[in-house]
Amino acid sequence: MSESVTELKAAVCAAVERERDTLLALSRRIYAHPELVFAEHQASGWLADYLEQAGFAVERGACDLPTAFVARLGSGAPCVAVLCEYDALPGIGHGCGHNIIATAGAGAGAALASVIAHCHGSVVVLGTPAEEGGGGKILMAKRGAFDGIDAAMMVHPAGLDLPAMKVLAVATVAVEYRGKAAHAAAFPHRGVNALDALITAYNSISHLRQHIRESERVHGIITDGGQAPNIVPERSAGLFYIRAATEARLEKLKARVLGCFRAGAEATGAQLEHHWLGEQYSDMDSNQPLAAAYAANVQRLGRVVRDLRTLPAAVSGSTDMGNISKLVPAIHPMIAAAPAHVPLHSSEFAAYAVSPSGDQAVLDGAKALAMTVLDVLCRPELRAAARAAFEQQ
User: Fold this and answer.
1) What is the rounded distance in angstroms from the CA atom of residue 44 to the CA atom of residue 41?
2) Per-residue pLDDT tens over the stretch 93-106
3) How far is it, in rounded angstroms, from Cα 216 to Cα 209?
4) Where are the alpha helices (DSSP H) in 89-213?
5) What three-state secondary structure class fits 119?
6) Neighbouring-strand partners of residue 174
7) How confident is the model over 239-266, as pLDDT tens digits?
């Protein structure tokens, strides 16, 4: 690494420290106003305002998505994208810590604005809505947001510092059964029980779980189980996620799960309808040269990065960043914001998202991302290695 890059890295870290109070206030503001998929009007606006004040040219409502934005700094190639997520979860708010993701990404952008004059190329901070099921990144990619991007990166809070995340492909299916209502005591023989159909399918899926791979998942909820106990339910409905290690395996598992849903219809006589919802999320190809650069940078901050291979195979999740990794060299590292035993998507993790450890994840995440962007902009050999790894995946 040249001395000039070392100096630039020191400068972006210092810039994040200067922005400490502003960044932590922004993180807590987003946390205090949780917004669900495609409804993140306040969060996206606050982030866009912050980046605009830092010198970015900001396009709000980008890609025909009201809560997306594209913020540009510098010009020409190479071009590196830093991604912000900011949607919350129903019921538990920022139980996935997207306030940390958003603020770390914006903080990295602001820090880079202080040194971009000394670099070749450009930086784009993308506000990507609806990661929790809406596939905002996928829609933005289809509409050109990743055209001309040489590398894309973000950082996600977790219980450990990791260079990558084990990402499963996932599909979402809504199912509905239609039966026939009848008085459950006087005329049960005249009814067709739609709830029994869904319960039969649910139990069939539970049996199926004994015979699927360790990396595969099927889980769901009943969203409509009838109107009253003394009426044979004429309608039932559910929402299910199906996950697998690759999209090819996902297609096979989807077929097996549909067989379980059909079994419910066959057993009861109810009519089945199913609809695949939203965008299907892909597994992720984490770019190893970029991940190694990030790991080196976050270790400079005193963090200890765990080897992903030491974790149980069951520790995994899904993200629309997987789809982006199929388009450009991309990374999705994890930064410790809570103790290792605290699970994501929980109220307990939500509390850590604005704790001292969560605040530190904002600051260290911004620094590590900014330093890794500098590596891509200033080290042609890293860009070449990242591109070679991407073409071989």
Assistant:
1) 6
2) 999 999 999 999 99
3) 9
4) 98-113, 136-142, 194-208
5) coil
6) 239, 275
7) 999 999 999 999 999 999 999 999 999 9
